Amino acid sequence: MFSIVIPLYNKAKSIANTIQSILGQSFADFELIIVDDGSTDNSVQVVNQFTDKRIRLIHKENGGVCSARNVGILHAQYDYIALLDADDQWDTDYLLEQQKLINEFPQAAMWGINFAELFDGKLIRELETALPKGYRGLVENYFGMKGRVSDLYCSSSVVIRKSAFDVAGLFDERLKYSEDIDMWYRIIIHFPVVFYDRYMAFYQYDAENRAMNNARKLRYFLPYYVDKYSIYKSHTDFYTFIQRWSAVHISPYYFGSDKTQRADAKVAVRKLDYSVLPTKYRYLFKTPYWLGRIVYVISNLKQRLLK
Q1: Are β-strands 193-204 and 136-138 bridged in parallel, bridged antiparallel, or unpaired?
Q2: Does pTM top 0.90 for this prediction?
Q3: Domain ranges of the chain
Q4: Is 178 helix (H, G, I), strand (E, B) or coil?
């Protein structure tokens, strides 16, 4: 049985369709935990219009999507946590397919199914998986996978074994952006994971109140906390990957015009492990600012020319 966890904050326009996509599932053995994170619109009233006994509504003060998901996970009664955002939807057979994946690959701790990004109801992006079309199985060498330009997993298309959180930890409540990939990475380090390349979850790109539409503050963004991964140095592929990923994302803040963001970026670059970074980043962050900026501009120009 599944415990479906939905964090809810000011999604009055979307939440009804999301709930309908769950109640219409062909696999019906689940509980639906909706965690209201201090909504100020009429989201709660919309949820209360549904009388299905499988729905549990939990209220909490506003603390962000991570704290809402964590509350839902801690209240879950069942062994398999299915995450879904309050403005996304599932194919009718989504849970049925997840059940099949769990039965086929019981050694895993996370099972993901591909998702489609929609705008105005139309597909706008197909995920670059670097896996064969229609792939279904365990994902090996995730952080060394050639050709992968996107993360395979999405906060609306994964099921996680509840006991995995005892090992990997819960969502990092300091984060407002990329908090989901931080969670996936910590699970992938510890456990086998599965992916099925079939679109069965639908990410509504134009939904209201999307965090991705807001300007990201570095101190709420994963690269600011790159030092948290120092405990994973023995996982060489991952450790190198996360250091490079963080350096790439810190650079625009470091050389941007926002002085507040630059101040935070100066803190973040001191947390990077330069022993696993390309030499370029020593010139970017450990030399006089003007020299680093020249390297940054030239590097970006080369990338644009190569595209």
Answers
A1: antiparallel
A2: yes
A3: 2-213, 218-306
A4: coil
Compute the CA torsion angle 297, 300, 302, 306 (nearest 10 deg): -160
- Going from the C-alpha of 236 to that of each of 24, 74, 243, the distances in angstroms are 44, 32, 11
Q: How confident is residue 307, by pLDDT bands cut at 50, 70 and 90?
A: low
> Could you tell me which of 278, 214, 282 has the C-alpha nearest to residue 240?
278
SS3 77: coil
Q: Which residue has the tokens 């993360």?
A: 151
Q: Strand, helix or coil at 258?
A: coil
**What class, spelled out in words, does domain 2-213 have in CATH?**
alpha beta
Task: Tell me whether strands 122-125 and 193-204 are parallel, antiparallel or unpaired.
Answer: unpaired
pLDDT mean over 27-41: 98
Phi/psi for 128 (5° steps) reads -85, 100
Biggest CA-to-CA distance, the chain: 63
What angle do the packed helices 259-269 and 236-254 form, to 10 degrees? 150
Got the DSSP string for 104-140?
Answer: H-TT-SEEEEEEEEEETTEEEE----SS-TT-EEEPP
Does the pLDDT of residue 208 top 60, yes or no? Answer: no
8 Å CB contact between 161 and 168: no
